[in-house]
Design a protein that fits this description.
Blueprint: H1 13-16, E1 20-24, H2 25-31, E2 33-38, E3 41-48, E4 51-56, E5 70-72, E6 75-77, E7 84-85, E8 91-93, E9 110-116, E10 119-123, E11 142-152, H3 156-163, H4 169-172, E12 189-193, E13 196-206, E14 216-226, E15 229-236, E16 242-252, H5 256-259, H6 262-265, E17 275-284
Bound molecules: FE2/S2 (inorganic) cluster and fe (ii) ion (FE2).
Amino acid sequence: MEVPESELVITDPVLVDDWHPVVACDELARRRLVAARLLGEDIVVWQAAGRPLAWQDLCVHRGTRLSLGRVEGATLQCRYHGWVYGADGQCVRIPARPDAPPPRKARVKTYRAVACHGLVWVSLGEPARDPPPFPEWDQSAFRKLLCGPYAVAASGPRIVENFLDVAHFPFVHEDILGTPERPEIADYRAVITERGVEATGMRVYQPDPYGTGTGDWVSYTYRALRPLTAYLLDIRFAQAQIRHFAELQRASLHDVEEETLPGVILGQATSRWARSAATCRAASTR
Ligand code: FES
Ligand SMILES: [Fe+2]
């Protein structure tokens, strides 16, 4: 069944009012202008005075994609007839009418954008909170790695579920993150906090966590911060309980056309939800 164009945009407020990473800050600085698709909405991301901006990718004159345009200082110029927009989305110059002030309604639809953890996060709605916390990202003792995005043929929630699941370690990650000889997972503590569900002290036996040939118990703290955002803190015992690394993983709804196909409407978790996951990782240098 063909899905009408009008139904291709995701309107779930849980997602619309959330923050979504769309591009790495470094990449935006290099390219200056990036086209992205978020929950079915085409957006253009650019920056003025070092501040990221996210707009609907649509010139209000004749509907040209603004991502085809060019950044000039703190303005964005449409490629078609050269209309120039200021950082607030208001058209400030119409080259064909240089002496007439642009009409007030000549304004692009703007969205919220913020730089955080090396990524530009965009919200199409009214977010109730900041992007998910990742305290290790700001600590000098940690080395920062921005990974991905990786295309995964699975649903966003499934990707997060897998990230929070240690019981598969001995079998899927045999002899690396676990071993089939010690598959047991002891009881651990899970609480609901203001920032989501937090599970502490999830102990997993790993055959060689230090590269010394000796096995040890590793303790994980997991936080399900948002429906599509999860956090992991890894603590290794033999090295005086050093915080070894922390990771923030964010699954993105990559292709809305697949997202809104009947599989979702019927509640089927099918591989039609092709997704990508952006991962920030802070690895301790100590
Ligand atoms: S379509 Fe953008 S200036 Fe005409
Ligand atoms: Fe895994």
